[in-house]
Amino acid sequence: MGRKRSGRMTAEERRNLIVRTAIGLFARQGFRGTRVKDIADRMGTSDALIFQHFPTKRELYDAILDEISTRRHFKDVEEVLYYAPSYDLEDVLIRLSLWFLRKDKDEETILRIVLYAALEQDDFLQELVDEHYSRIVGYVAYEVEEGQKTGRFRPGDPRAFARDFFAGLFGLAVMRQIVRDSDYGREEAETAARNHAQLFLRGLEKR
Amino acid sequence: MEKTLDCTGLACPLPVVKTNQAMKDLQSGERLRLISTDHGSANDIPAWARRTGHAIVSAQEDGGKFVFLIEKAG
C-alpha cells in the first residue's frame, strides 16, 4: 500500500490511523471522556473527516474490535493448536497465560479499554468480552471436558473451571499491568505464566 | 466414507481444533463434513487445509452457517 504522489495518506491509511488514534484515546481516557473532536485534534484533522470514514460510533467500534481481536494477536497459540502433530495442554495454557501477562503495550491497551468499558457500562463491553475473552474460556472448557472423559481431571462443571482459569489470569494481568503492584510484578512473565497454568492443571488432576 | 462434525455455536479456536482432531481418525481419501457458525472459519479452515495438505472439496455459506467438505490428504 503506497502513498499517493503528493505524499498524502491513502484512504485506507487514514482509516487505520483513525482506528489506532481512537484506541489510544479510549485506553487513556475512556469512552465517555473521548469525543470525536479529540480524535480529530490528535490527528490534526477535522471531525468531518472522521465521520466520513466512520459515520456511526458502531462502525468505529467494529473497526476497533477487529484491530484488537484475540484472533489477530493469538497467532503463536494457534500455531501450536492447529499445526503441532500433537500438543501438550500445559504448553498451550502456559502460552495463553504468557500472552496475557507479558508486559506489552498492546495488552495493556486492551486491558484498559475493557476496564473502561466495564466501569462506564458501555454497550461495547459485551462485544469486547465475547470477541476477546469468551473464546478462551470456551477453549479451556473444551479441554477440561476432554480431560474429564479420559479420567485425567476430576469431575465438575468444565466451564466453571475454565472461568476460574481465566479470571485468575485476568486478575494477575490487572495487578501487574494496570495497578502495577510491585509484589505482583516480582516474577518475570514467563514464571508467572508457568505458575498459573501449572497450578490450574495440578488442581484439576485427580490425585 | 464421510463423517460430519457439527461445530454450531462454537467460537474460534474450537472449530479448527476439533476438525484437526476429527481428521486424525480418518483414513486418507475419506471426507469430513464440517458445519461451523464461527465467522472466522471462512478464513481459518481454508488456511488450515492449505498448511496441512487436506483438500477442501466444497465450501458453502448459507445464512451464517459455513459447510466445508474436507478430504484427508494421502
**How is the CATH topology of chain B named?**
Translation Initiation Factor IF3
Helical segment count of chain A: 11
Query: What is the ordering of alpha helices and beta strands of chain B?
Result: EHEHEE
First and last CA, distance of chain A: 57 Å
Strand content of chain B: 35-45%
Task: Give the strand order, joined by hyphens, for the main sheet of chain B.
Answer: 1-2-4-3
Provide a descriptive summary of the structure in words:
- Chain A is mostly helical and 207 residues long.
- Chain A has 2 domains: 11-67, Arc Repressor Mutant, subunit A (Orthogonal Bundle), CATH 1.10.10; 70-204, Tetracycline Repressor, domain 2 (Orthogonal Bundle).
- In chain A, 71% of the residues lie in helices and 0% in strands.
- Chain A has helices spanning 11-29, 36-43, 47-53, 57-68, 70-73, 75-83, 89-101, 105-119, 125-149, 158-177, 189-204.
- Chain A is elongated and about 65 Å long.
- With 74 residues, chain B is α+β, with helices and mostly antiparallel strands.
- Chain B has a single domain (2-71), classed as Translation Initiation Factor IF3 (2-Layer Sandwich), CATH 3.30.110.
- In chain B, 31% of the residues lie in helices and 36% in strands.
- Chain B contains 2 helices and 4 strands; from the N terminus they run βαβαββ.
- The longest helix of chain B has 12 residues, at 41-52.
- Chains A and B meet through α6 and α9 of A and α1 and α2 of B.
